[in-house]
Amino acid sequence: MSEWISVEDRLPIEQDYQSTYLDCQVIATDGTNVYQNTYEIGGNHVGRPWSGFTEDEGNYITHWMPLPEPPK
């Protein structure tokens, strides 16, 4: 299984400033709760990129990990 990755070390998707929208599903935690979440990045075509987790449960997400592969 994957190890937790700190949001201070790396985010799930790197902003390339070319994409208008990308997203990925991850497992996220705020240090207390663990849940599936979506991380999104985008740009508004004037050099102002945005990014964030879609559901932070009202708390600051501190770590994330990729979803495991589904069973075969």
Give a brief rundown of this model.
It is built from no helices and five strands. By secondary structure, it is mainly β.
> Which percent range fits the helix content?
under 10%
SS-derived structural category: mainly beta
Biggest sheet statistics: 5 strands, antiparallel
- Tertiary shape: globular
The pLDDT mean sits at 83
Strand content: 35-45%
Tally of individual helices: 0
Strand order of the largest sheet: 1-5-2-3-4
SSE pattern: EEEEE
Rg on CA atoms, Å: 13 Å
Features of this protein?
72 residues, mainly beta, 5-stranded antiparallel sheet, globular
Summarize the SSE layout with pairings.
Elements: E1 5-6, E2 21-29, E3 34-43, E4 49-53, E5 63-66
Antiparallel strand pairs: 1-5, 2-3, 2-5, 3-4
Characterise this structure:
The protein has strands spanning 5-6, 21-29, 34-43, 49-53, 63-66. A hairpin with a 5-residue loop joins strand 3 (34-43) and strand 4. It has a five-stranded antiparallel beta sheet, with no helix packed on it. It is built from no helices and five strands. With 72 residues, it is mainly β. The mean pLDDT is 83.
